[in-house]
Structure formats: structure tokens, C-alpha cells
Amino acid sequence: EVQLLESGGGLVQPGGSLRLSCAASGFTFSNYAMTWVRQAPGKGLGWVSTIGRSGTDTFYADSVKGRFTISRDNSKNTLYLQMNSLRAEDTAIYYCAKALGIVGPATSRWFDPWGQGTLVIVSS
Amino acid sequence: EFVLTQSPVTLSLSPGERATLSCRASQSINNYVAWYQQKPGQAPRLLIYDASNRATGIPARFSGSGSGTDFTLTISSLEPEDFAVYYCQQRSDWPLTFGGGTKVEIK
Q1: Are A100 and B46 inside 8 Å of each other by CB?
Q2: Interchain CB distance below 8 Å, A111 and B50
Q3: Above pLDDT 90, what percent of chain B?
Q4: Whole-angstrom Cα distance, residue A110 to residue A48?
């Protein structure tokens, strides 16, 4: 069974940093692109970042570009999101999600399954 | 950026009724749309990808259609567990984007 377990969320002051982790199990982690999606309280879903299988290819939403860094450690089956210069508008539940399949954009940009999420609150 | 507009925002229906949800793209995105279901306190779940392909384990009462700019998610006969929020998402180009969601509530 595929499992994704996020951790690292919490309360941080504006301008601060956090590193989120997503521990994956139940599949060959290195075969799949991985993605972070966030959801502000009571709001809809927002794509944050995607990383390719090897970690070479990374993509970011404009709202986080230059502040957030996605990375992965395939030897540890773990996905990361380093978040710097945090703002109040970054407050959200952050979900990690596995790509549906391994065949290029046709399946790597659909998300299945998702973890349960970790809550990040940016507030003074 | 491809903007996805979902309608209606809220759909009030009774169990057993048919639900029709719409997702409209600001430009053609071929058939590169997925639909997700999210229940309160839970993570989203993939229902449909590439406009009409059901994900693994998704009941046949869920179907998707459309291409270009107009897409539809249909639930043929609502079960009690189907009352939730539904989001569409496009993969045509970066940035990946979601629609604002449609809440299907019990009438």
C-alpha cells in the first residue's frame, strides 16, 4: 500500500523558515515525480512545486519561486520542501502527492495518492 | 497561465439524483483535465484523469467528458458518500492549476 507521511509543519514567524518532509513507502520512490500542493484554511487547492524522478527537474508556482526549494533523497524515500522568507499567505495545509504514473507528462502531472498533509501557520 | 473556472460553486441535490459539474478553461487544454474529490478533514482523491479515465478503484457512477475548454464531471446517481467538494486540475502547461471547486451538498 502506498503511504505518504508529511511532517515538519508548525507555527513560524513571518520571515522565518521551515523544512517539510514527506516519507514515502509502498512503491519505488525513485520512479515517480513528486509534488507539493497546499490549501489555505477554508480555501481551494494550490499547486506549489513538482520535482522529477531524479531530482534534476524542478518546477515552482510563481508565488513561491525563489523562496521555496523542492528536493528529494531517493536513498531515503523522502521528499522535502525548504520554505524560506515565509509570509502570512503561506499559511496552509501542505500535501505531498505521488505522480499517477511514470510515463512523462502524460501521467506525472496527475496526483495519486496524496498524504494527509501538514499544517504550516505563519504568524507573529 | 491556464485559469480553470468551476460551476456551480454549490450544488444542492438529494441522494439518487444526477450531479453535473462544470470546469471551463481560459484556453484550450486538449483533454488534460483531472477531477479530485475532497471530503472534510481528508486529503483530495483522484477520480478522473485525461478528462475521461477513471482512476483505480473509482466507481463507475463517476464519469468525465469534454475537450478543449469545456469539461464535465457527472455522478450518475449520488450516494451519501459522494457529498464533498470537487476540484478540476489541468496539466497542459506549467504552472499546474486547479479550479476553485464545486461543493456538492445534501438538499
Answers
A1: yes
A2: no
A3: 100
A4: 14
Question: Which three cell numbers, joined as nine digits, stand for A104?
Answer: 512523462
CB atoms near residue B56 (< 10 Å): 8
Chain A nearest-CA distance from B91, in A, is 6
Question: Closest Cα of chain B to A107: distance in Å?
Answer: 9
For residue A106, give the H/E element and its range.
Answer: helix A104-108
Place of cell 502531472: A109
Q: Among B29, B44, B5, B47, which Cα is nearest to B94's?
A: B29
* CA–CA–CA angle A39, A44, A47 (5° rounding): 60
| Residue B37 vs residues A37, A90, B34, B41, B87: alpha-carbon distances, Å | 15, 23, 10, 12, 7
Q: What is the pLDDT of residue A102?
A: 82
Q: In whole numbers, what is the pLDDT of chain A averaged over residues? A: 96
Q: What single DSSP character describes residue B96?
A: P
Compute the distance between CA of residue B49 and CA of residue A111 in angstroms, rounded to an integer. 9
> Which three-class secondary structure state does DSSP give residue A97?
strand
Residues 6+ positions from A122 with CB-CB distance below 8 Å:
A12, A13, A14, A16, A86, A87, A88, A89, A90, A91
Prior bond of B80 cis (ω within 30°): no
